[in-house]
Structure to design on (175 residues):
């Protein structure tokens, strides 16, 4: 009688103690072959810039609205514009509550950028303007860039608009 090797014993033990491997159904986990199209790696697709913006991408960052904790956050990457406005609520139901109005519609063309936010409690914002160099000497200085243009606060409930011309300083950027 031949004596089993350690590996044969381990393999036999695994087969006897792990019944899911025997008669495995398609709903249970299974190993896939590398050529399986459902598990093959897909190439990473990088979108080409859809705009011809002249605003430098390093102008991305926080622009202060005036009150502590209230800001416009702008991200420009690969020709896309995204971001949000964060501020404290001032209505009866949200007074003092931090609110984040994410950009819903955006565009950049030449020196101009535009965005409109999603609506929260009937309030939403729109902006049309540009980003220009400010008085800051280095990117670490507050105000290196300025977000300039018209910021409109829309109130869908009261059907009102509050328009204001703004020149918002960029926050300090750390490399």
């Amino acid at each position: 009688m031949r004596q089993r090797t350690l590996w044969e014993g381990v393999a036999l033990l695994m087969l006897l103690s792990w019944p899911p491997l025997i008669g495995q159904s398609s709903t249970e986990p299974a190993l896939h072959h590398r050529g399986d199209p459902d598990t093959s790696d897909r190439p990473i697709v990088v979108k080409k810039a859809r705009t011809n913006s002249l605003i430098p991408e390093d102008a991305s960052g926080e622009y202060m609205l005036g009150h502590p904790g209230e800001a416009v956050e702008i991200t420009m990457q690969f020709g896309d514009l995204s971001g949000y406005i964060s501020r404290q609520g001032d209505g009866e139901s949200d007074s003092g509550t931090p609110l984040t109005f994410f950009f819903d519609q955006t565009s950049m063309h030449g020196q101009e950028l535009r965005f409109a936010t999603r609506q929260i409690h009937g309030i939403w914002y729109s902006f049309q303007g540009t980003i220009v160099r400010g008085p800051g000497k280095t990117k670490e200085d507050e105000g290196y860039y300025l977000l300039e243009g018209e910021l409109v606060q829309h109130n869908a409930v009261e059907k009102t608009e509050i328009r204001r011309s703004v020149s918002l300083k960029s926050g300090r950027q750390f490399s």
The chain has one helix and eight strands.
